[in-house]
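Intended use. Records like the one below are meant for learning the mapping from a protein sequence to its folded structure. Do not use them to infer anything beyond what is encoded.
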Amino acid sequence: MTTDEAKKEIDEMSRLLRRYQYEYYVLSRPSVSDAEYDRLFDRLVSLEKEYPALAAIDSPSLRVGSDLSADFPEVRHAIPVLSLDKATTHAQVLEWMQKLQGQTQDPISFVCEQKIDGASIVLTYERGILARAVTRGNGEVGNDVTSNVKTIMSVPLSLPRPVDVTVRGEIFLPRELFDKINEGEVTPYANPRNLASGTLRRVKSSEVARVPLDIFVYEGFFRKPPATHLEIIEELVRLEFKVNPRLGYFSPSGDFESERTLLPQTVAGRPEDVPAFIEKTTRERDSLPYEIDGLVFKVNEIGERDKLGYTGHHPRWAVAYKFDAPHGVAKVLAVDVQVGRTGRITPVARISPVVIAGSTVSNVTLHNQEYIDLLELAVGDSVAVSKRGDVIPAVERVLEKNEEGYKTWLLPAECPGCGSPLEKIGAHYFCRNPECEEKLRGELRFFCARDQMDIENLGGETLDALFENKIVRYVEDIYAFDVDALLDLPGFGEKKVALIRDGIEKSKAKPFRTVLSSLGVPELGKKAAELLVNGGYTDIDRIIDLADKKDPAPLLEIKGIGEKLAAQIIDAFADKKMRRRIAALKKHGLRFAAAPDERRPELPAVFRDQVWCVTGSFESFKPRDLAMEEVKKRGGTVVSSVSSKTTHLLAGEGAGSKLEKAKHLGVKVVSEKEFLALM
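Structure written out for the chain above:
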């Protein structure tokens, strides 16, 4: 094939693929089969590799991303990227409309758009080609994430006409796809917005390409702007941008021009119809395929916008109506660093106390540095705090930046417990010092915890006293120290010491599977221990023998054990420190072989193909997660939040917002009595 022939074929395939991408990802009306699309795409990629000089800067092949690193340089915005003034009641929206009408001589109209809960983006096109994609940042400067945004199928790489235009949009992840991604996560993502924002900041665009992000464009800045916002939206549609068709239009006459065929779903009315429109949208909010956190009302006439102008913070011609948020608002007072038993470093926000779902929250985990970076969180910021699954407090987003000038918080380079350098593994930082005192304290607390060996009267304060007085340092010391020596410590009387001795002695009767999950092997929790025992590994010697052979293959034959867990089991039980611990615990009488009745038979899969969620409190299941364990044992799937995919909600006393959402979505609500009967 000559170069001219290759160029002709590349140009034709690129033209077809751009058309097919637009039909599929923007119009949702594909005209060719997936197989035909894939054939053309693969052929284009092959030709561009053979003739790299012929690859266009807007080639459809850019959708797959690159493995090259990106450092996200800062770019100053060429258009205003300001926040919006806020309204929280219908009356405030109407007052705002009336105020603006009083400041203008001619009648004005208003457009209402859904406020997508995603990541704001500014796209700049030069002569119809995508030149830059920049995050909102602080409103003046953002990060250049062009290579990542090019992987989003609904973002046009080139326009039908060679126009210069800058557009604002919101990148988001549809709810259904978010739920699907979250199903496989050990630590679920907080919400679609955070996942979308974090994805945009991934170093390699090839990783971004694997996440099915989407976009709605809602504002366009042309060299010669149209007369109204509706005309801007129509022009964006003609340029093949994806816009949200769910619009509201409110004018003194209440009429909507019939010739606006590009905006067929627009709801029209008078300003006095706004409260009813807000109520209707609020009711429909949970059934939308994407998340919204409010509505944005804008003056429709561009000339009137120019007259109204801006404050230093927001445009005077727009206001955001915010839905009642299922969260509390708090100020970040400080960020502390915790060292876990595995050495994992976890930043924790200390916030001003806020009541959420009936309880006061003052400490919130921030997970890791990547999570903090995507939130752009700093000390002094005002944040939205929710309870994931009605239980775990989480920072959802930054609502207002601090006025003290604090920048995004950064983890220290050294372990706060021992001063050792931190090592990054995956998304987290770890202290690798095996003698770090914070790690050793964590191992002791974990081993004695209620969900593990459940050693009565050996709580956190008692363990700290034993550790600080150099009586207990390692887990095996719990069974070796002279309990009577505690009588010499303040606060330890004969009765308390007797209870501690009794609790330690009772723990020796715990079954093998409990001892196994309490040893502290990462990811080897109760469920994994049960899988091992049921898979035939009924004593510790069989597991140690497997570790000596360094062969994970037999473990991979057990359903539910993957490559990562198998490798961790092999590594953990080959470790000399773990071997010494097991030998010492054996010597003190702990069980390292399963009793004959410890291997449980398979339970009937009565919950197969069902998706369960839980809310409230129960008599038979304390904590309530035990009920969800029963669901999983019987073939069901468990999720932390109610969505359209949820089939059943187990509702107990004091059921929270999940119950209302389940009723709204038509999810079957099951009482504790009914659940026990189903089991």
